[in-house]
Amino acid sequence: MKKIALILFLLSLCLSACKLDTMLGYETVPPEALYTITMPPTSTPGPTYTPTLDPNVTPSPVPTLGLGSTMISPEDGMTMIYIPEGVFEMGSANFDKDERPVHPVYLDAYWIDQTEITCSQFLKFVDETGYKKSGFSAGQCEQGGDHPIRANWKAAQAYCQWAGRRLPTEAEWERAARGGLEGKKYPWGDQAPVCQLGAPNGAMFYDGENCFESSTVRVKSYQPNDYGLYDVAGNASEWVADWYSEDYYDQTPFDMSPFNNPQGPEDGIFRVFRGGSYSTDSNSLRTANREGMPGQNHFGFRCAADAP
């Protein structure tokens, strides 16, 4: 009887403890519930789209640009020559001080006009925009629309912007004019120029005797260089984008002409022009020759554009 009474007593204590937990707000949780992790249902992947090619349609090949590639400008019909990215030697060691030292220059790929901008192209620009005629030499165009226009620097810049292009930098102009001939005096090599039409070293310039004309000749009258550019020596001197500085090539190592895509000095008085003309001697026809003049003078020009 005493054992039975003891068991009943312990049982009553247990029941009392369970009721106390409930009264205090505790909930008895089975141990296995503490370790139960519910995962989201696995999604079923949808169908994969596989495009099908029409066997009757031949995909257009992606054009590969290379040296000698050309394109036509939609604004003025100018043929443009592709110059791939690369390094060339700029300047000359044996002539004028402003051409020294010879130094390597890297240029991104770009396009440059095959010829100087002609009178007919420039007059189209004037007709469409109403540009002031004081910015160029209208009298020169009386000899023919295929002669190079002679304009001041701002007019040249305005034309290139209208055509969706820009003036080339001095470095871009020199690399294109060299035609891949490193260290040579002229776009065709070292042979002295002559005014003979069809000659590989032909150009319109002034030699004091046989090669003097009172004006320009038609573009493409002489042979192109190895890159396909015409009249980068003689006919009309050409504006480029840069300000002129005599010592731009030969400053301190921290300020000298940069290796990558040089843009010229930040400011200046004169603008650079290149290439020589019908009224200059053979020295001005040298590819490395640099000259500067105020921007209001009338020279020829060609445009350039960045390549993607």
Overview of this structure, please?
With 308 residues, the protein is an alpha+beta fold. It is built from 4 helices and 10 strands. A 4-stranded antiparallel β-sheet has the order 1-2-5-10, with helices on one face. The chain has a 4-stranded mixed β-sheet with strand order 8-7-6-9. Strand 1 and strand 2 (79-83) form a beta hairpin. The radius of gyration is 39 Å and the shape is globular. Mean pLDDT is 84; it is low at 1-8 and 13-40.
Q: Short description, anyone?
A:
With 308 residues, this protein is of the alpha+beta class. The chain has helices spanning 2-23, 119-129, 153-162, 170-178, and strands spanning 70-72, 79-83, 86-90, 103-107, 110-113, 238-243, 271-274, 291-293, 300-301, 304-306.
Please give a handful of descriptors for the protein shown:
single chain; 308 residues; alpha+beta; four-stranded antiparallel beta sheet; four-stranded mixed beta sheet; 4 helices; 10 strands; disordered N terminus
